[in-house]
Write a structure and sequence with these properties.
Layout (H helix, E strand, L loop, with lengths): L1 H47 L17
């Protein structure tokens, strides 16, 4: 019986350790997701800032050409 309890305690300790490791991975992934979401928002904002680049059909050649 004691041997069985020891094995169960080992398994529980292993699972606690594994759960802690998985939690770290999930936290890192969440940080990456948040950074990527911020990057996408920034890229969208930059795209919506204005149309400071004219379409090619409306562009004129610079005077030095």
């Amino acid at each position: 019986m004691e041997k069985r309890i020891i094995e169960l305690e080992k398994k529980a300790a292993f699972q606690e350790h594994l759960l802690a490791q998985l939690n770290e991975v999930v936290l890192e992934q969440q940080k990456k997701i948040e950074r990527l979401e911020a990057w996408v928002r920034t890229a969208k904002d930059r795209d919506n800032v204005g149309d400071f680049v004219k379409p090619l059909s409306e562009e004129t050649q610079p005077p030095h050409y």
